[in-house]
């Protein structure tokens, strides 16, 4: 029994001790102290309290912190610059342009060694911009910061108040002399003398007391905000061109070419921190000579020594419309493959200039014999993207700049004979995915009242609704025997759907002329809605999304 008790006692005492030991080991941190020569490490400590004691033991040292995370250590402080990196960096204005004074670029100013930075590093500041004063203070006509202005005002007021006090003393003395023994006048003179002396004591006394406490209290230091080093966020999928476009990062060609698939080496400047990449990492160029092409990794097969084949991916300049099942490129179309071919660096400048949007959409529909493909969405024909300026201009010439303009947008795959309007591209799910993507995405912002909506119906469904009521509903008279598909404003779509849900027979049989008149007015407004010349439609009214199971 005693043995069991002894073992239990040892277990109860040792387990907490062991846990404490493990916790102590895992909670160690690297201790840093502040010194006049910069932050200094005192190796690992068990806690911030121990770090504080260790710093206190050294003369001229004080606690900076005890850090477990490397990112928080002084050597990774983004506020700390070397003098060379600071003074070689050009100052920028609010718009990011280089500041120029006297035809020379203005560089940043180094603030000297800072106690929280590693040795040789300190804060870096943007030099002040001088502001011309509306009212000069003595010889001071412009200032670079608020502290200079306050110091100048204080330096001007101090002698001014003293001069006023002396003048008041002289006036009071004259009042006393000329009082001729009048007690009232003498008391007024005494009161003025006391106030003048008190003003002098207050002005000079406050300055003297502040100077005795700390001379720095009589001088207002400039409020300066230290500059933070440039931080760039990248990842290993970024192209060499995209990486090199960032300030503080350069790319060196690894070979003799910067064409699609060629590699480059990333270099990071001293005052720049890059998240996602490090010095010496590799990247790939994406330049293609043909503006219709984009650089992408496409799949291919290669024979290996074991006699089996293994799929590999290679960089190649390809056009979106060249990717289709069993096509010459030899890669399988997919959402990710098509998306990667939507645009190239060569396209982007033109797209931005013309307010455009590029699309390379995956299509698995029926129009090209159930062949999966990537489809280039374009307008006008033979363009590499949707030129929104051209689309709006054509829509205006047709009478309306509205969602109906998207009926004119084209899709292109090289296995198919030329481009075709996207409202002809029927999907294998009895839908129109390309039309829906462009219409409801509204890339040219043509929609009003909530954007654009794709509407669809077939003539059989509409015949069941209209029946014999075309005399009351002029809209029914312009329906056709073919399917209709159009892109319309969301508000137009909502109103048309509302009209379809009306119990027409009840209204007509009841002879309620006011309701019929209201309905007819609403329908007439819709039939006079936007139309686009060249769109396959028999009238101005857009088709309606209708499902017989409603």
Outline the structure in words.
It is elongated, with a radius of gyration of 40 Å. A hairpin with a 2-residue loop joins β9 and β10. It is 33% helix and 21% strand. It is of the alpha+beta class. It has a four-stranded antiparallel β-sheet. A three-stranded antiparallel β-sheet has the order 2-1-3, covered by helices on one side. It contains 14 helices and 23 strands. The termini are far apart.
Number of distinct beta strands: 23
Structural class: alpha+beta
Low-confidence stretches: 1-26, 477-482, 508-512, 523-550
What percent of the residues sit in helical stretches (DSSP H or I)? 25-40%
Cα gyration radius (Å): 40 Å
> Order of strands across the biggest sheet?
18-19-20-21
Shape: elongated
Number of helices: 14
| Portion in strands | 15-25%
Q: What does the largest sheet look like?
A: 4 strands, antiparallel
Mean pLDDT: 76
Distance between the termini: 83 Å
Secondary structure blueprint with pairings:
Layout: H1 2-26, E1 29-34, E2 40-45, H2 48-56, E3 62-67, E4 81-82, H3 83-87, E5 100-101, E6 104-105, E7 109-113, E8 121-125, E9 131-137, E10 140-143, H4 146-177, H5 183-213, E11 230-233, H6 240-244, E12 249-253, E13 263-268, E14 272-275, E15 282-284, E16 293-303, E17 309-319, H7 335-340, H8 345-353, E18 359-363, E19 373-378, H9 388-398, E20 410-412, E21 420-421, H10 433-441, E22 452-457, H11 459-466, E23 484-489, H12 490-500, H13 504-510, H14 513-527
């Amino acid at each position: 029994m005693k043995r069991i008790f002894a073992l239990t006692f040892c277990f109860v005492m040792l387990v907490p001790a062991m846990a404490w030991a493990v916790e102590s080991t895992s909670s160690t941190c690297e201790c840093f102290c502040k010194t006049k020569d910069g932050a200094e490490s005192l190796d690992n400590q068990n806690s911030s309290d121990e770090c504080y004691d260790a710093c206190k033991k050294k003369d001229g040292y004080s606690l900076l912190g005890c850090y477990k995370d490397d990112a928080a250590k002084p050597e990774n402080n983004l506020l700390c610059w070397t003098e060379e990196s600071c003074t070689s960096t050009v100052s920028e204005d609010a718009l990011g342009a280089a500041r120029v004074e006297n035809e020379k670029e203005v560089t940043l100013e180094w603030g000297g060694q800072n106690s929280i930075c590693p040795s040789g590093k300190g804060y870096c500041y943007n030099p002040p911009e001088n502001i011309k004063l509306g009212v000069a203070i003595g010889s001071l006509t412009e200032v670079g910061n608020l502290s200079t202005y306050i110091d100048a005002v204080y330096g001007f007021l101090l002698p001014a108040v003293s001069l006023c006090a002396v003048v008041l003393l002289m006036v009071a003395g004259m009042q006393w002399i000329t009082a001729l023994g009048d007690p009232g006048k003498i008391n007024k003179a005494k009161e003025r003398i006391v106030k003048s002396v008190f003003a002098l004591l207050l002005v000079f006394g406050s300055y003297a007391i502040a100077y005795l406490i700390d001379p720095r209290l009589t001088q207002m230091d400039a409020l300066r905000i230290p500059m933070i080093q440039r931080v760039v966020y990248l990842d290993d999928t970024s192209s060499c061109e995209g990486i090199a476009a960032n300030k503080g990062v350069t790319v060196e060609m690894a070979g003799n070419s910067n064409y699609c698939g060629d590699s480059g080496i990333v270099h990071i400047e001293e005052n720049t921190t890059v998240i996602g990449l490090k010095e010496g990492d590799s990247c790939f160029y994406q330049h293609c000579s043909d503006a219709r092409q984009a650089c992408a990794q496409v799949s291919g097969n290669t024979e290996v020594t074991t006699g089996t084949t293994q799929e590999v991916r290679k960089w190649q300049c390809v056009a979106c419309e060249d990717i289709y099942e069993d096509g010459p490129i030899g890669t399988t179309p997919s959402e990710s493959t098509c998306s990667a071919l939507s645009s190239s660096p060569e396209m982007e400048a033109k797209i931005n200039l013309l307010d455009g949007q590029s699309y390379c959409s995956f299509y698995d529909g029926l129009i090209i014999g159930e062949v999966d493909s990537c489809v280039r969405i374009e307008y006008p024909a033979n363009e590499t993207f949707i030129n929104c300026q051209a689309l709006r201009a054509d829509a205006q010439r047709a009478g309306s700049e509205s969602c109906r303009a998207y009926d004119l947008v084209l899709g292109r795959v090289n296995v198919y004979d030329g481009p075709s309007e996207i409202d002809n591209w029927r999907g294998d799910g009895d839908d129109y995915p390309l039309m829906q993507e462009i219409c409801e995405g509204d890339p040219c912002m043509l929609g009003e009242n909530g954007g654009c909506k794709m509407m669809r119906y077939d003539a059989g469904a509409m015949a069941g609704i209209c029946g014999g009521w075309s005399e009351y509903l002029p809209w029914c008279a312009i329906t056709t025997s073919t399917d209709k598909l159009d892109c319309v404003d969301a508000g137009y779509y909502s109103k048309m759907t509302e009209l379809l849900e009306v119990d027409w027979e009840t209204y007509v049989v009841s002879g309620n002329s006011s309701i019929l008149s209201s309905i007819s007015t609403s329908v007439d407004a819709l039939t006079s809605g936007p139309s686009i010349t060249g769109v396959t439609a028999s009238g101005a009214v857009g088709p309606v999304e209708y499902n017989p199971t409603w």
